[in-house]
Recover the amino acids of this structure.
């Protein structure tokens, strides 16, 4: 049904200082917002994830929700992003997704959601000769989005290529002062002798990228009970069956192995050359 004000033209007449002018109709904004939401790549399983539906149980969860709401309220004036880090199942992705939806709806921002391993897979696939899409075509929305959510940063198996690729994303957005929202199960350990150092931001991303994130984002460690375990127990109680033991979450996923050759990918855009250097052929492909 056409808008009753503009009758589908997306423009309306307003009077400013006694002069009649045309301006965008309110329905145009609604159309744009719906398109931005549809293009945002938010997974369907988070269709109902909103800031309003996030139920914090701990002080850190309440602090995380407060920072997410503050981000939406101040955007785009507050350019700092957010890093939500902590154990699995405490609602980090729910917060990031709810924030992304809110900033698209309320501020008309262009935003995207990428699960980190999925983003790396998409970039890696461009090295297949049967794929027409280039690295830059994959990375352009990631680099240029008003707001980017990188989910599960650090789950991928670390390598020189991973460091270079994620470093390019973080550094480009840092230089352009574009807001980045990170969720991660990593810990912020800096001492190599720390037992958790192997699962730290420093180890998985490198010192340079961690330093960039410290400067460009506010960090909040989110702690609480695993929501997924609670859901499993509730479902088990309904069926009268004991839940199976939860799988061990190591924070690691294996990516394809690497060969011993050096390779370089150049991403060119309007005369600007982006370079990814790594040992191991095409992004560690077999």
């Amino acid at each position: 049904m056409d808008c009753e004000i503009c009758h589908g033209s997306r423009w309306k007449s307003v009077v400013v200082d006694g002069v009649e002018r045309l301006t965008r109709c309110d329905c145009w904004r609604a159309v744009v917002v719906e398109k931005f939401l549809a293009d945002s790549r938010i997974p369907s399983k988070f269709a109902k994830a909103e800031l309003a539906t996030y139920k914090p149980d701990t002080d850190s969860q309440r602090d995380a929700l407060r920072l997410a709401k503050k981000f939406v309220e101040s955007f785009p004036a507050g350019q700092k992003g957010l890093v939500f880090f902590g154990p699995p199942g405490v609602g980090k992705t729910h917060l990031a997704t709810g924030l992304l939806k809110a900033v698209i709806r309320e501020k008309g921002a262009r935003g995207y959601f990428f699960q980190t391993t999925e983003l790396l897979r998409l970039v890696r696939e461009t090295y297949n000769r049967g794929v027409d899409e280039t690295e830059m075509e994959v990375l352009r929305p990631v680099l240029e989005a008003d707001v980017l959510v990188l989910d599960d940063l650090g789950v991928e198996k670390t390598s020189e290529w991973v460091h270079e690729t994620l470093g390019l994303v973080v550094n480009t957005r840092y230089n352009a002062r574009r807001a980045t929202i990170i969720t991660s199960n990593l810990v912020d350990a800096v001492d190599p002798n720390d037992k958790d150092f192997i699962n730290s931001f420093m180890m998985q991303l490198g010192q340079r990228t961690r330093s960039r994130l410290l400067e460009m984002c506010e960090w909040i460690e989110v702690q609480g009970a695993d929501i997924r375990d609670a859901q499993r127990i509730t479902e088990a109680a309904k069926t009268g069956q004991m839940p199976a033991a939860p799988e061990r979450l190591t924070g690691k996923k294996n990516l394809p192995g690497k060969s011993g050759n050096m390779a370089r990918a150049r991403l060119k855009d309007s005369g600007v050359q982006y370079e990814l250097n790594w040992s191991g052929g095409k992004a560690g492909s077999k």
